Amino acid sequence: MNTIQANGYPIHFNENAYLELNKFLSENKYSNIFIFADSDTNEHCLPVFLPNLETDLTIEIVEFEPGEENKNIETCVELWKVLTELKGDRKSLVINVGGGVVTDLGGFVASTFKRGIDFIHVPTTLLSMVDASVGGKNGVDLGNLKNQIGVINVPKMVLIDTQYLTSLPQNQMRSGLAEMLKHGLIFDRKYWNLFSDLNNLNTNDLDILIHQSVEIKNNIVIQDPTEHGIRKALNFGHTLGHAIESYFLENETKTTLLHGEAIAVGMILEAYISFKKQLISETDYEEIKSVINSIFDKITFEENDLNPILELLIHDKKNEFGTIQFALLDGIGNIKINQTVENELLIDAFLEYNS
């Protein structure tokens, strides 16, 4: 698959990725390499990655605990200390091998250590391949609030090798599909249509879909790297989805949701809001709901869940002057940004979802 040129860095695929990485290492003088990985990717992915790495530089593997609950400033402090103890300097290189937590966290640590050192992303989950590792967003959560602390800073390159997906559980694969579905809904009706029947997909089809999904996100990010305009389109499903994810993360009576599981619910809710605001037809809404529900399990919301979820919306990063901003569908394949939604319609969307 062809390399995609992003805003200041290349995205390489499969076998070509390692050729380009080793060429890059031979052409740039780094003092040492730190590989960031959580315990899962250390076990399942580094045995694939390390044999493909050709360098005489000292390599240090830095492992931390997996999971969104560890994507916080406390983990950053520990990683900054490790870099310092292992003599990291301005010419060190960080390679983040893992899912979205690893790439978000590792990119933030590298961007802030000694005022910024170079880093490379090697996403190993479907979600991180099509979303987290593309676009330059790096950061951590503040308590249960998603991605409140961070920077926009691009890697030197992104390497996408789909063989890492063979070790991925089905729920993690579905989590990544949510972002791919979103890319079709906001940008390309034909791409969305490809997901109406996933039963006949083979490995080669998935590679092509991943490449297309990265192209869609990259196309949007190049137009608006710092999210002042069209990049807000990528937040479809995320305004309510992030609030749901945060609420389930902090509530001990709830089962923690994967990012894509929460975003799938958010997309159904925000598609319903788009329908009620006459931006999409009822037929489009029913189609969206049917496709997403065919892939994801339905989540149950109790009546006393709704207000706490809605209260979390005020912390959404897209808000301006205290007003909650939504990206809503304007027909399948198009989007309207900076949309406001009254509380009654938000409650109505949850009630419709429950029904």
Automatic annotation (TrEMBL):
InterPro entries, per the entry: Dehydroquinate_synthase, DHQ_synth_AroB, DHQ_synth_fam, DHQS/DOIS_N, DHQS_C
Annotated coiled-coil segments of the chain: none
Keyword entries, A-Z: Cobalt, Lyase, Metal-binding, NAD, Nucleotide-binding, Zinc
Cofactors, names only: Co(2+); NAD(+)
Organism superkingdom: Bacteria
Keyword Phosphoprotein: no
Record-annotated 3-dehydroquinate synthase C-terminal domain positions: 176-319
Keyword Nucleotide-binding on entry: yes
Record-linked SUPFAM superfamilies: Dehydroquinate synthase-like
EC assignment: 4.2.3.4
3-dehydroquinate synthase N-terminal domain segment(s): 63-174
GO molecular function: 3-dehydroquinate synthase activity
PANTHER family the record matches: 3-DEHYDROQUINATE SYNTHASE
Function: Catalyzes the conversion of 3-deoxy-D-arabino-heptulosonate 7-phosphate (DAHP) to dehydroquinate (DHQ).
Name of the protein: 3-dehydroquinate synthase
Annotated organism of origin: Flavobacterium qiangtangense
Gene from which this protein is expressed: aroB
